[in-house]
């Protein structure tokens, strides 16, 4: 048995050719904090691949709050929220988050991935329907696989296709449409007003994953529903702390009954240890900052508009992105790896996104902005991107015309 298993894993070839070509871009060890500049292999690299949109991971007030929480509560909770792992600060954070996103109640999990796994696997069941955007995050897909409900996917942000799919479902069935607020690779925003009208027409509920929207869009960064002024139309709002909130963990917010149900049914909550005191305290401190210091979100958008303008001037194809996530389409896996490698050697970190994560004619460099980038860092990155495209032989849209 053991031997067969080893034969199977030893045959894994997916990364071999990229490794042999010296282009392997994953698990790159960073020797510093997650800031606009990081240290890799002893060298300074400009970070354009982080999800720390507000650049708060080294904020002194947040670090101080984490340290104080360790002094008071220790390093871990040694149990799940359900049993011995609930601290007063877990409850404080849940109350703050519910208020922040405009819902009655919230519950926090130890990662955002676990929120989607736990919520989607318990909230709908046999004979119910989960309706997903084809580009939804992997954690939504995996949560839907763990649920016993029927799963239906519609074409990305295509409201005609969504309507078509809903038309075929039984009237009386429970239906939940689960979508990303800002899509994690493409950077576009869900068409919530149209989606909400369709949901009303067919009696469906809505869940929005705001992993990339919190701290980015909406009133004081409160996310997608707030951005559209439609908080009452979204039944479940999910968020993570691993991006703008500079920490680790996640939450789901909804009406009191739904949260009470999730607290007693979501297995990734009940059977997993709770968020560490340091993480909880850091999120509370980040929320204080996000709610009272608007310049972080303003700077993020200034940087996003500036980068977009420079990239547009150079003729890069960025699709319909409307956020600090700028997908720079290369549309060829090998060239995407080559460009990433050249950029890294020139001190620019971007993330390659290739098939099967996206169709192979959609492979891209995921270029993301932080509030703390300077204009000169952005200029340096765009200049090096243009040169790397030329070296590898990728034409920008402007050059193709
Ligand atoms: N949802 C989306 C849209 C995400 O992009 C991610 C993380 N990349 C998650 C959920 C999972 O969040 P976490 O990293 O907190 O587990």
TrEMBL record:
Which pathway does the database say it acts in? Lipid metabolism
Q: Report whether RNA-binding shows up as a keyword of the record.
A: no
Coiled-coil-forming residues are none
The region annotated as signal peptide is none
Which molecular function term from Gene Ontology is one that the record holds? pyridoxal phosphate binding
The UniProt keyword set, sorted, is:
Aminotransferase, Pyridoxal phosphate, Transferase
Domain (Aminotransferase class I/classII large): give its ranges: 45-385
Q: Matching Gene3D superfamilies, A to Z?
A: Aspartate Aminotransferase, domain 1 (3.90.1150.10), Type I PLP-dependent aspartate aminotransferase-like (Major domain) (3.40.640.10)
Q: Which InterPro entries match?
A: Aminotrans_II_pyridoxalP_BS, Aminotransferase_I/II_large, AON_synthase_class-II, PyrdxlP-dep_Trfase, PyrdxlP-dep_Trfase_major, PyrdxlP-dep_Trfase_small
Q: Give the matching CDD domains.
A: KBL_like
UniProt lists the family membership as follows: Belongs to the class-II pyridoxal-phosphate-dependent aminotransferase family.
Q: What is this protein called?
A: Aminotransferase class I and II
Q: Which species is the source of this protein?
A: Mucilaginibacter paludis DSM 18603
Upper lineage ranks? Bacteria, Pseudomonadati, Bacteroidota, Sphingobacteriia, Sphingobacteriales
């Amino acid at each position: 048995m053991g031997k067969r298993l080893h034969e199977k894993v030893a045959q894994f070839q997916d990364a071999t050719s990229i490794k042999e070509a010296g282009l392997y871009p994953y698990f790159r060890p960073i020797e510093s904090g997650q800031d606009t500049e990081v240290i890799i292999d002893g060298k300074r690299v400009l970070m354009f691949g982080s999800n720390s949109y507000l650049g708060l991971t080294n904020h002194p007030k947040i670090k101080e709050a984490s340290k104080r929480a360790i002094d008071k509560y220790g390093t871990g909770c040694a149990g799940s929220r359900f049993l011995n792992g609930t601290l007063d600060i877990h409850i404080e954070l849940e109350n703050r988050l519910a208020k922040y996103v405009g819902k009655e109640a919230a519950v926090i999990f130890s990662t955002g991935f676990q929120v989607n796994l736990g919520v989607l696997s318990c909230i709908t069941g046999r004979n119910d329907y989960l309706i997903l955007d084809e580009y939804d995050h992997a954690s939504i897909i995996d949560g839907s696989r763990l649920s016993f409900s029927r799963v239906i996917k519609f074409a990305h942000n295509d409201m005609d296709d969504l309507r078509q799919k809903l038309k075929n479902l039984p009237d009386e069935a429970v239906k939940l449409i689960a979508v990303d607020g800002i899509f994690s690779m493409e950077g576009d925003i869900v068409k919530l007003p149209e989606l909400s009208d369709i949901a009303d027409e067919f009696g469906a509920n809505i869940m929005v994953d705001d992993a990339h929207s919190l701290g980015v869009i909406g009133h004081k960064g409160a996310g997608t529903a707030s951005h559209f002024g439609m908080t009452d139309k979204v039944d479940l709002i999910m968020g993570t702390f691993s991006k703008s909130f500079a920490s680790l963990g996640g939450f789901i917010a909804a009406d009191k009954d739904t949260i009470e149900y999730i607290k007693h049914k979501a297995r990734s909550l009940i059977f997993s240890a709770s968020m560490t005191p340091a993480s909880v305290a850091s999120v509370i401190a980040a929320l204080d900052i996000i709610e009272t210091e608007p310049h972080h979100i303003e700077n993020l958008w200034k940087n996003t508009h500036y980068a977009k303008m420079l990239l547009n001037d150079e003729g890069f194809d960025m699709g319909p992105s409307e956020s600090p996530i700028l997908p720079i389409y290369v549309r060829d896996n090998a060239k995407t790896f080559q460009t990433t490698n050249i950029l890294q050697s020139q001190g620019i970190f971007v993330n390659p996104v290739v098939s099967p994560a996206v169709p192979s004619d959609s492979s891209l460099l995921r270029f993301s902005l932080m509030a703390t980038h300077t204009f000169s860092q952005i200029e340096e990155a765009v200049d090096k991107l243009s040169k790397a495209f030329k070296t590898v032989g990728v034409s920008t849209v402007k050059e193709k015309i």
